[in-house]
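Shipment paperwork, digital attachment
Item: protein structure file
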Amino acid sequence: MSFKVLISKQTRNKWWIVFLLTISGLLVAISSIYFLFLPVGGYQGGRNPYYGIILLFTRSTWDLIHTWVGVSMIAVAAIHIPLHWSWIVAMTKRIFKIMLGQCRGMNARGQFNLVLNGLIGLSGLLAAISGLYFLFFSGTHGTSMLSPSILFSRAVWDVIHTWSGVVLIAAAILHFAIHWRWFVKVAGKVLVGTTPNREIYARQVTLPHEWKNQW
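Attachment content:
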C-alpha cells in the first residue's frame, strides 16, 4: 500500500515558516507588553512600586527572551520575504499601473489585504532596525545606558521601536485571524503528513485569489 503526500513541498515549507513566525511573534509580543507596562526595572530604596516585581520571570530573563527571540524572528522573516518576492514585485507594479490608470483597481478585500500587508512590512522593518540598534549599541533594553546617536537619539529610537512594535502586533493578529482557516487546514495535513489511500494524489492547498502568496 503506497502513501501519498497530501500537500506540496512548497505549501509545507510555507506553513512551517508561518508557524515559526507565529510562535516567535507571540513570545516577542508578550515580552513587549511586559516592557510596555513595566518600562523600568526599579531600584532598591525610595518610593518605587516597580522594584522587585517578578511576572513569571525576572526582568533580565524577559530581556533575553525579547532580544534573542526577536533576532530569531528577524531571521525567519528574512526567509519568508524571498519566498514571496515575486508577489511583492507584482503587487508593486500593479499599484503603479493603477495610479497611472493603466489597469483596473482591486476589490475591497484586495485593497484591505494590501494595506494590512504594507503595515506589517513597514512596522516590522522599523521594529527590526530599531531592535538591532538596541542590541548592538544600547545594552539592556529599557535602561538609561548612554548610547551613540545614529540618525536619531536613543529616546527617538525607543519611541520608534515601541510604537512600530504595537502596530506590528495589532496588524499581525488581524492578518492571522483572516488566514486562520488556511493555517488550520494546512496544519492538519502537515501534521498527518501521509495517507494510505491509493486514490489520493499529491495536491497543493491553495488560497483564495486575493490572498494568494501573501503568507
